[in-house]
């Protein structure tokens, strides 16, 4: 089944997910013994014998957990939803808990001088640049809007500014990046936060270690 047959492996990504998961781990009695920003280690030890953290790319967390490279992980709803759609609607991940961290929203944004409402009403074909092509495809299909999707991996804000696209679908938290680039949020698609994801086999075979951890996280989230 999983990474190691004993102990527990938790997959996290650097940055906000790691930072915001730390207090939850602490509430569960787990201290991470190295800082991923300064350490070159990809596997970080903790104060709890057998509990280790693997540092992976945010979009790789579901993959590690699904295939047992990690027993559990923390992943954004954006990543989970995008990958579920890409796999035909679902993946074999148990999602017991919304951790309510790394909160933001998935939105449509355009240049301030682009008349989105009219373009949508007139049934024009929209050119949409995004990293989240499946979420964008589903969103516009539900609205009956025809789109040409352009897959990007970085700085989507640049697409409308260069004429690459009419609109972008991206994560927005404060709106500061959009404002700095003279873009406006024209539609909100969904609220985003990060969830705990657990490997199905681990849930059964490591139940005795996993259950108290999930319960401690749950308490810390509602506190
Ligand atoms: P990278 O930035 O290395 O390309 P990434 O964008 O996938 O990777 P992060 O920016 O750390 O990684 O985002 C990880 C998760 O945090 C996202 O999947 C999303 O759920 C959430 N997130 C992203 N941007 C924001 C934001 N501005 N505010 C709050 N949460 C966010
Ligand atoms: Mg990012």
Automatic annotation (TrEMBL):
<comment type="similarity">
    <text>Belongs to the ATP phosphoribosyltransferase family. Short subfamily.</text>
</comment>
<protein>
    <recommendedName>
        <fullName>ATP phosphoribosyltransferase</fullName>
        <ecNumber>2.4.2.17</ecNumber>
    </recommendedName>
</protein>
<keyword id="KW-0963">Cytoplasm</keyword>
<keyword id="KW-0368">Histidine biosynthesis</keyword>
<dbReference type="InterPro" id="IPR001348">
    <property type="entry name" value="ATP_PRibTrfase_HisG"/>
</dbReference>
<comment type="pathway">
    <text>Amino-acid biosynthesis; L-histidine biosynthesis; L-histidine from 5-phospho-alpha-D-ribose 1-diphosphate: step 1/9.</text>
</comment>
<comment type="subunit">
    <text>Heteromultimer composed of HisG and HisZ subunits.</text>
</comment>
<keyword id="KW-0028">Amino-acid biosynthesis</keyword>
<feature type="domain" description="ATP phosphoribosyltransferase catalytic">
    <location>
        <begin position="57"/>
        <end position="217"/>
    </location>
</feature>
<dbReference type="InterPro" id="IPR013820">
    <property type="entry name" value="ATP_PRibTrfase_cat"/>
</dbReference>
<keyword id="KW-0808">Transferase</keyword>
<dbReference type="GO" id="GO:0003879">
    <property type="term" value="F:ATP phosphoribosyltransferase activity"/>
</dbReference>
<comment type="function">
    <text>Catalyzes the condensation of ATP and 5-phosphoribose 1-diphosphate to form N'-(5'-phosphoribosyl)-ATP (PR-ATP). Has a crucial role in the pathway because the rate of histidine biosynthesis seems to be controlled primarily by regulation of HisG enzymatic activity.</text>
</comment>
<keyword id="KW-0547">Nucleotide-binding</keyword>
<keyword id="KW-0328">Glycosyltransferase</keyword>
<keyword id="KW-0067">ATP-binding</keyword>
<dbReference type="Pfam" id="PF01634">
    <property type="entry name" value="HisG"/>
</dbReference>
<dbReference type="InterPro" id="IPR024893">
    <property type="entry name" value="ATP_PRibTrfase_HisG_short"/>
</dbReference>
<dbReference type="InterPro" id="IPR018198">
    <property type="entry name" value="ATP_PRibTrfase_CS"/>
</dbReference>
